Amino acid sequence: MKKTLSILLILSIAVLACSCDGSFGGASLQEAIEIPADGIIEARILSQIRNENAIAVFMGTSEEISYEWTIFGSDIQEVKDVNLSVDIRERKGQEVIVQLSQEEAFGFSALLSVYLADKWEYQGATGYEADKPVLSVSLTGSKNSILNMSLDGTVSTIAIRGDELPQASSVVETESGREETPPSDIENDPYLSAAQEGDEHLYTNGKDKYLTDPVPEGKPKPVEPEHQEVNAQTSLSCTFSIECATILNQLDQLDSDKLDLVPSDGVIFPETTVTFYEGESVFDVLQRVCRENKIHMEASWTPIYNSAYVEGISNLYEFDCGSLSGWMYRVNGWYPNYGCSRYQLRDGDVVQWRYTCDLGKDIDGGYAIGG
């Protein structure tokens, strides 16, 4: 493992509380470092982070709200004193105001994570400056929400508001053909359906032959890969993204050899509209997106579930950030309870691949890792 914060801790003696012998009272190299009272992190400390290509975490509090700055040495372009003190005000469940003390650009982008006392009922959030959207904010955390955003100091006051849940229409089979129902708010539904007579996917024990639990009402049933019919004459589109922001809150759990693989904002592939052919699966599009954007991806076939199992994306694999970590996929706000190569995409779907460190609990998910 490369040296990360060893020299940083030594150089911080003049800034942070320390013992007389220059140690930090047993603090480990990957523990967050408390931001000093004046908020200033000296240029020499940032220089050391850059020279060591380290990942440093600085923590502070504002009005009983905890926050952390994660700084990646590889992102530091200009070295100077920076003020990491932040003033945070929260309107419960509605809006968070973040005001930086820094009066000019940092000279690098850093990840700011704000730990809220409550759980936000949103899938994502947006940061606004004077009511103009200026940045995307990801939400992680299982019991309480953590707001994660990438900042470079050019925006001093940000109002963060939760995004409305996406809407989508569903298609149902009727005697007269396929009919589209009106759009409705999409939630992470519990299992609402039970085995139904005549349903080829379900059996008397409540599972299909690939061990899939009943699909919630209103959600699409799986299409087996051997029954997949791709129409290359019809192009559709969906919104696709890949992110691992939850790792940024669990860096102490991450395989030390993988530190350089985690983007400073957790975004591997930003939310992008991509095209696909009618009949293709989530896995088909994942393969294409990764191939065209030179993103590493590895998957294996799991016969018992009749689906591909995504082991790693961008060289981040299952178990790299703890024994409960790995990749999950979400479509229109729902984590399907079957594999990604059994999920047939529809025009306008919103697909997100997300890394979990806690078997989905930290990303509002509840089904199996690996898609």
Q: Tell me the fraction of residues in β-strands, as a range.
A: 35-45%
Using the CA coordinates, give the radius of gyration.
Answer: 23 Å
Q: H/E series, N to C?
A: HEEHEEEEEEEEEEEEEEEEHEEEEE
Overall tally of domains: 2
CATH class of the largest domain: Mainly Beta
Q: What assembly state would you assign to the polypeptide chains in this entry?
A: single chain
What's the helical proportion of residues? under 10%
CATH T-level fold name of the largest domain:
Ferric Hydroxamate Uptake Protein, Chain A, domain 1
Distance between the termini: 31 Å
SSE topology sketch:
Elements: H1 6-11, E1 33-34, E2 40-41, H2 43-51, E3 55-62, E4 65-72, E5 82-83, E6 86-91, E7 95-100, E8 110-115, E9 125-129, E10 132-140, E11 146-151, E12 157-162, E13 167-168, E14 171-174, E15 177-180, E16 184-185, E17 231-243, E18 267-278, H3 282-292, E19 297-302, E20 307-313, E21 316-317, E22 326-331, E23 350-356
Parallel strand pairs: 1-3, 17-23
Antiparallel strand pairs: 2-5, 3-4, 4-8, 6-7, 7-12, 8-11, 9-10, 9-12, 10-11, 13-16, 14-15, 17-18, 19-20, 20-21, 22-23
